[in-house]
Each structure stands twice: as C-alpha cells, then as structure tokens.
Design brief:
Radius of gyration: 16 Å
Helix content: 55-70%
Number of strands: 0
InterPro entries: DHC, Dynein_heavy_linker
Largest sheet: none
Protein name: Dynein heavy chain linker domain-containing protein
Shape: elongated
Number of domains: 1
GO molecular function: dynein intermediate chain binding; dynein light intermediate chain binding
Pfam families: DHC_N2 (PF08393)
Number of helices: 5
Oligomer: single chain
C-alpha cells in the first residue's frame, strides 16, 4: 500500500523482509521468554538445538536466527 504512494525507495523492500523475518521468529521468542520455563526445559532445548546458545547472557535475535532455530519452531514451542 505505501509502496504505491511513495517514490521508489530501496529501504522499503529491505524493511519489509526484516519484518517478515521478525514475525516468523515471534513464536520462538515468546516460547523462550515463557516465565514458566524451568532448567529442565532449557536442557531439552539444548538437546534439540545442539548448542548452549540459550544460556548466553548476550543472546540476540540475530544470533538465534543464524543458528537456523526457526526450523525447530514447532519443537521449541512444544517444549516451552
């Protein structure tokens, strides 16, 4: 809708792509932020993911996305 109203701009497709990526990551983000998650849940996730990426205090969404964690969304939400 806005693309038709605004002059040509290379930022719009890039921003749109980032929004789509973020929306796809939301179920994983919400599952990992579940306040009822216990250590046993994180232990199961560690086995699923194959890495201790979740224990990292400096964990960022970009780092999660690089681990291809979105391919495991259904399994992660089941654990959480």
């Amino acid at each position: 809708m806005l693309e038709k109203a605004l002059p040509s701009n290379n930022i719009i497709p890039s921003l749109k792509e980032r929004i789509v990526e973020f929306k796809a990551a939301m179920p994983v983000i919400l599952a990992l932020r579940n306040p009822h998650m216990k250590q046993r849940h994180f232990d199961r996730l560690r086995v699923l993911i194959g890495k201790d990426v979740i224990d990292d205090e400096n964990l960022r969404l970009s780092k999660l996305l690089k681990t291809e964690i979105l391919q495991l969304t259904e399994k992660i939400t089941d654990v959480a």
